[in-house]
Fold each of these.
Amino acid sequence: MTTNRFGDTVVLTGRSLKHVTRSLDTILTTAVTPIAMMLLFVYVFGGAIHRGSGSYVAYLLPGILLITIASGIAYTAYRLFLDLQGGIFDRFHSMPIARSSVLWAHVLTSLIANLISLLVVVGVALVMGFRSGAGPLAWLAVVGILILFTLALTWLAVIAGLSAKTVDGASAFSYPLIFLPFISSAFVPTATMPGPVRWFAGNQPVTSIVDAIRDLLAQQPPGSQLWIALIWCVGIFVVAYCLAMVSYRRRIR
Amino acid sequence: MISDAAVRVRGLEKSYKDLPVLRGVDFDVARGSIFALLGSNGAGKTTVVRILSTLLRADAGLATVNGFDVTTQAPDVRGSISLTGQFAAVDEILTGRENLVLVARLRHLRDSGPIADDLLRRFGLTEAAARAVSTYSGGMRRRLDLAMGLIGNPPVVFLDEPTTGLDPQGRLAMWQAVRQLAAQGTTVLLTTQYLDEAEQLADRIAILHGGRIIVTGTLAELRKVLPPARIEYVERQPTLEDVFLALVEGDTGSGGTAVVGGGTDE
């Protein structure tokens, strides 16, 4: 059964990747908004916000990457919702395949599509003057955090896709996630924020993840922020996965 | 007789919240036969099919498919069946051929390519093979749906309202395909709301009403339920279907328009 699960997941991932490659606009629209924000913040607001040493692109990039992921995973909820509506989900479930592979295929597709979008965004950042002297190990850690964050948010998207009543509902859940980086250290240091906002910004997941990635890329020891970031990612991943399984079981009964 | 049943259902019950849909359904489907489950919209036909294809769990009762219990041996049941749905469950973005290859791969068959090409030919979809399914007509989609269901030659096939929404020709083609399937020894359980469809295709017919099977038997047996036929003399007019099929099939793309009645309207 284990070999089946792996083989079935590969076959079904191939299927949903074709959905992505045949509507490349999903990758582009995922990347366009974060790129526009990056341009806006660097070339319009940047002069006013810039906090001294280092380039603002480098400061901004980690938050922009998280926004990219938050808008990318909405497509997972959308595709999953359409599979449920169209009946192909039922067809797969009435076939002698490993049932878990149906959801994992969507999750892996989300991971691959988001990594491509992230590459596009990093490419634009390089053109805008972003440079990092980080070694392979630090980059590996950054990629690892981004993969974990994508997986965690994708399982949130799976919950939305499984429980939504309409197409709009399936993707609307990502808007608060896209907004979350604004109330964090992604664009400006939290020190300038008023008390309660600063407390929220300091204790929500985006700040620690952004700080950890920023330190890694700037060749500084990330310290405790890295561990807090990892705990957030793994925590969201586990909780979202369990809730997704609950709504999945409810759905197939 | 009963031990030979491909599908066996006893005392099946299912409620959605407080609404009872099935209140004790019993029937048997003999191997290699075509069995029609007849009922109006909302009678619970789809619910029966979803329980038999392990997509839904019954509240009470027993159901076996190909000798396997749908609750305790669900993977074996899934290995014995295929389900083609009322809302053709095909992938819109993939091409017709890719849909077939996908199912063949998921059934762990080698030679998924040749299997797909063979089915495309049998169902008259070779020319459309490389087109995305979103460009297909309703009839083509339904044929592809059925073709996907035949991959791996499952011994039991469930067809949930196979001709709903099809034009008369598509309907006849679907009937033909179902007959061929039964001729090869496949057991077919189909649900329908069309009386003539059950009459045309089924070896046995069961009428599902009010959550129970109120009558089951062959067409001849069902006829005996009513008072014996009276002989009446009726002038047999061609039905609209006869006219439609005669006109459409006679005219194979010549572009001509048949004018009926001869009236010039200027």
Note: The radius of gyration of chain A is 19 Å.
Amino acid sequence: MKKSNIIMLIAAILPLGLFLFPLWKITLEAPQYPTPLGMYIHINDFSDANPHDIKNINLMNHYVGMKYIPEAIPEFKIFPAGILITTVIGLIIAFKGNYKWFLYWFILMVALSSAGLYDFYIWEHDYGHNLDPKAIMKFTNPDGTQMGFQPPLFGSKDILNFRAHSYPRLGALFLGLGIASGLIAYLVGKKNKKTT
Amino acid sequence: MKKLLKSTLAMLSVLVALTSCNNSTTSDSKSGALAGNVAEKVYVAPGEHDEFYAFISGGFSGQLSVYGLPSGRLFKVIPVFSQDAEKAYGYNEETKPMLNTSHGFVPWDDSHHPDISQTAGEIDGRWVFINGNNTPRIAKIDLSTFETTEIIEIPNSAGNHSSSFVTENTEYVVAGTRFSVPIPQRDMPIKDYKGNFKGSLTFISVEPEHGHMDIKFQLIMPGFDYDLSHPGRGKSHGWFFFTTYNTEEASTLMEVNASQNDKDFIAAVNWKKIEEYVNNGGGTMMAANYAHNVYDESTHSATSTMKKEVLTVNPLDVPGAVYFLPTPKSPHGCDVDPTGEYIVGNGKLSANLTVHSFTKMLDAIENEKFAGDAYGIPILNFEDVLAGSVEQPGLGPLHTEFDGKGNAYTTFFISSEVVKWKLGTWEVVDRQPCYYSVGHLMIPGGNSRKPFGKYVVAMNKITKDRYLPTGPEVTQSAQLYDISGEKMQLLLDFPTVGEPHYAAGAPADLIKPRSKKLFNLEDNKHPYAAKSEAETKVVRDGKTVHVYMTTIRSHFSPDNIEGIKVGDKVYFHITNLEQDYDVPHGVSMIGANTSELLIMPGQTETFVWEPKQEGVWPFYCTDFCSALHQEMQGYVRVSAANANTPLRWSLGEDIE
């Protein structure tokens, strides 16, 4: 097996790490929470950073009229399927394809991941802005518009008494390494082609 | 290569610089200007934790207080033998059975001697046992919840004082009677005390996993007063030692008549021998009536069972099981050093402090050097068992603890001081005054093979002018001394709850990691729990109504109830749906003849309300739970006894 194909094989397998490790983590810090509230986002699930965190995030958020974090969303079915399919494609081209296919796979992965992130952003935006009109506490921005409580997509941000952090976790690293390896496989393949 | 060498050298020099910097800070902190500052030694900065837990008995308050050392900060008062309206202990339906006895519901006791469970002779921080003096009981407090989870009544006992001390592996918690009484109780002239009254020493087995208590046997001893006790440890493991007074067997004007004998006894009991005797079918089963109350964490409820018999043992039936060690003048504390060799008899009316030797005791027993007997129990010669005396150490010795470094610390009630002396040489090393009239003292782990000899806490009976006055009744107090050096240093005194009779302490690290944050709602097996708002309901059964109610920030569900009638008996079963640390909810109902409830996350508690008057009556949350706490309220409509208002309930909408 060619070196580039071995790299491609690794590239295809790495994103499966998403099934083992969380993709993202949102953490909420406040003085009353010496242990911050936290939520892991997995490829197919939301989970508590510490026991009962999601329940307690929901309880906090209901004061400003935010919806409960759903138990399940359609993405939890679509994303795992997407990863499985792209891994199978990756494996097939690792064994059968040439380096050009590696580039196509890389582009496919970048496109799908961007779509996923965009989808995540849309959900976050809705979660932070689509508030219950009977909310217990209503806050407005200085310009008079309704204040939103959208957590950051990436980075840290103050939301009322909380400081919210949103950062990728190990699963995202596996995905990122997989995608990058796809590109490397292409470049190595291309170089080999030239030298031979 | 040169480059590499250069960079390695550079790195090394950085490391050296860092290390030397570290060294200088360490030495600074030791020799700094504040090193001798007393305030600094007890200062625990905001947000920091204390180094030790101290469990200080509440005496006539019937409770057990939890303090931090060295700060002396009070964290919790654990209700044990007395009703506590703050926590609904003994008021709510779940914990009322905890205070059941053969005399019915007894809502108070006199709690004296906490002792922490041990494994291999060292405190393990799982449970605290404490005795109720007045209506003889032993309680167990679970240190994962800091709640009383079991109480067993002691039959054939009165003034349960030489209690509740545990053996080296918590095989037994021991409860000795202070007052001898007719056994079994019967109508007889008091003047016939002598020879007819008996004293019971009760060995309660402790089941290793859950700590469930069961009376294994009662040793029926001569009618003396059994004052305090301690287990043997190390080489003396398997023995238990009890001080006695009133070996005169007087029954009136005791302060004079029970102080006549030059020497009373320490009773040495070989419990291993008696255990073997009992396991082989020995002993006499006697009819009895005593309560065994157990709190179940999964149902959040206690049950009370009346037990009807107890196994008694006559010491004369087990040769070699019990001996008397003559000990001067009404000894109070009976304390065994960490090696198990020395048994200190704190003869409270004696000028000297008597220390017996376990090795010499065994030798005297083997050579049958007996001075006589009391009711058939062999008395050893004082000189044969004496290890040594601390001469003229103070007046009124009460209790001795050990630091694990060869020193002992004894309280002197009359001369109001703590005296440090050396085991083996019996020389007095230091003395420090107490303010005033010290009773017992405590070194964390002081009643074990492994004391943590950094602090001693002295507990004072009288404070007079020590604090801001509060009318005729003023607080009692505890005093903290640093004992890490050759001389003791008074660091702090702090007020206590009730009368601090005795205490037990443990390093915080032993207990802190096991402390529960909440109860899992999924594990709640309370028969009337509503584990979600969907499960809430109101059920009528004749004149009894059960309300299955929930709390979560910041509402009750249901919060409107109609169809209750005058003369109903309404049980409010409230489940706290919260699953967050430190979010209890409270509840109280106007006119309810009971206390509020204080319900921890995941817990269910019940109060009873018997409405006597028509109307619409509010209830509300009593624990400030959230920003919307003031809004956490509801109404119950009470109709006439013969009304036909239908039973309805709601949350968030009007009852239609």
Note: Residues 3-195 of chain A form one domain.
